[in-house]
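Input.
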Amino acid sequence: MSYRVKLNVFEGPFDLLVYLIEHAEMSIYDIRISEIVKQYMEHVEAMQITDVNVSSEFMVLAAALLEIKSKMLLPRAVPEEGSTEVAEDPRTELVAKLLEYKKFKRIAEMLEAQEDRTAKILEKPQEDLAAYTGEPDEYLSLDIEKFKAAFEQFLRRKKKLEEIREHHRRSEKQRLTQERRMEDIQDFFRRDPDRKADFRELIHQRDDKYDVAVTFSSVLEMMKQRRVDAEQQYLFGDITVTAAEELFAETGSTGEREE
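Output.
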């Protein structure tokens, strides 16, 4: 009956070989075969005392290393001048196997670390959500006339909401325009405080009804604030607008009347 002994450091022949190469600070692409073979055989001889089966696995790679060493001792054929051929390196196949071994070893270490992390994660057991998701869909039982009436009511409400939004936009636009027009009127009288202006002079575009309405509402608001005075001698007559003292009290000495 055979038995196996797993070493604490080396799990296989390539593991030992990689250790020797890295310990000797060699490049894996330029292995000093003679030095590595000597160290490798010393480890194999020490292992033969403990486990024959393990040693046999290591002996397979030892034979391959000896074969590479013998090929390295043979003189190499020199390529002819002008030839593109490159002499084959006996270590090429060994380097490829070592690179593949190191790649899979890194992957194994990564998977082992991931297993350790996931072992510390506690998962919540799945709950039965049928009580919340098993409700049947509800359908409205309406005839065509009731459905038509409900749809028309929806359209009326939608139209009403759109009218309210449009009115709000117009009101907001008018409010902003009125504030700007009141500033224009204030600047108008600041340039000539004693001037008696005809209402038409305060209008920017006399052929625009909206501009006329905004100017008129601005004058009314400024009259309410006691910033301007307005006078109309008769019905539908001309409106004369003059600046009040309150208008210049806001602007300070720059807008005071000249006595």
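The first helix runs from residue 13 to 23.
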